[in-house]
Amino acid sequence: MAHTTLLYNVISLSLSLAASALAPPPDTTQQAPTTVRAGYYFADDADLWPLSALDASLYTHLYYSSLSVHPTRHTLQLPADLAQARLLASFSRELKGRNPVLRTLLSLATAGAEDAAAGAARASGDPAFAAMAADPTSRVAFVDAAVRVPRENGFDGIDVAWRFPASVVEMADFGFLVAEWRAAAPKGFLLTATVYFSNHVFGAPFAGVDYPSEAVAGSLDWINVMAFGLRPADAAATVTAFDAPLYDRASHFSVSYGVVSWLDAGVPAGKVVMGLPLYGRSWFLRNKANSGVGAPVVAAGPKQRGSNATGAMSYAEVQALTTTAGGRAPVMTSYDNGSVSSYLAVGDVWVAFDGAAFVAEKLGFAARCSLLGYFLWPVNYDDANLTVTRRASEVWEQSKISSDLRNVTGVRQGKAPFELPPALGSPSPASEPVPVPTSASFSWLCRKKLDARLHLSVLIVLLY
């Protein structure tokens, strides 16, 4: 077994070196992007959606997700699998061949974080990432490899997807890490981070942990806010719940709170990118006659080939569920305009998901906040027509030229419970095009500027 692993590593290194000779070097003179239409491509799910099937023109940036920190050596762990090594070596070259202005980034993530529905609220830290970041020597060596390997394979940058720093000390180490990355990276090399809320990471076995917002704002080109995975779908869940609501009447488990937490922490809106899930969260209902939000459940939903996990379905599988049910079970689709969320129930299976209509609504919110852009998680999970991907790109491009959406700031979700305005008209579940959100349909967003009253972070001096 050891010989096999060594052979794979040798092959991986050979492929990497070959790719560096074939792929054009990353453009290290590029200017900061004015907009981001990004997506994470899960390498482990390449069989669902090969690179050849991606429409590279729909993105400005694509992430290879992901490589991780070796659990004992604290070094960058290259793929041992031959197919994965080939994918890493060809990712940038193949995609840029179809879209020369595309920028690619290598995401460095917590091992196993490719689970699309892995709840941000259930994060429990990453010991390997933490051990690497805590030791200055390991950190320097890792930073060197994390800049060198992407450049050798034609990537234009790296993404730090440590999910998540689990203490005040680890958050401080995160700040040191991104600052050292910026110092080591060549000019124009992109640095981003995949993050949760800026403070008070809910549901984790720690409390009062805030990101070092000054280091984030000063060192990174932008942050990708994981505005999904906000509710657990495991055995701890007892009722159905939305996974990525734009608003929440009773709590801060919402997209708007997550985004605004970063704006209130001092990170410029032009460095914030909002996440959109391309998966649905599913459960088995206790009683299929009771299928609303908050209905009792008995277990996470059925395991799917796409997500390879219980409790999660790719967007393509959500759509397929409505057709394969046929006449065997009625399909009920409901839209909640107060939270800007949707769900469907087929028999005893209940799924919360973001369809094209609510993606447009969410992007209207992002444009109102003057955010830099959005990212899709993961791009492998869209349907064969790329329904959500195309709709997101179309809406964002139109919102970029709309002064009604782009020149207004101050959108907030306040302390729960949040008094919502009257519901908007329900979007139709039919295939008719959904109008791009306008200032009229979103006028209520800025009718009342909300005081988030986030706690002031306390500057902690760590004594070693």
Automatic annotation (TrEMBL):
GO cellular component, one term: extracellular region
SUPFAM superfamilies: (Trans)glycosidases (SSF51445), Chitinase insertion domain (SSF54556)
Record-linked Gene3D superfamilies: 3.10.50.10, Glycosidases
SMART domains named among the record's database cross-references: Glyco_18 (SM00636)
One Pfam family matching this protein: Glyco_hydro_18
InterPro entries named among the record's database cross-references: Chitinase_II/V-like_cat, Chitinase_insertion_sf, GH, Glyco_hydro18_cat, Glycosyl_Hydrlase_18
Record-annotated GH18 domain positions: 35-399
The organism's place on the tree of life at top rank: Eukaryota
Family designation: Belongs to the glycosyl hydrolase 18 family. Chitinase class V subfamily.
Database matches in PANTHER family: CHITINASE, OS04G0376400 PROTEIN
Protein's name in the database: GH18 domain-containing protein
Origin species: Triticum aestivum
Encoding gene (name): LOC123191709
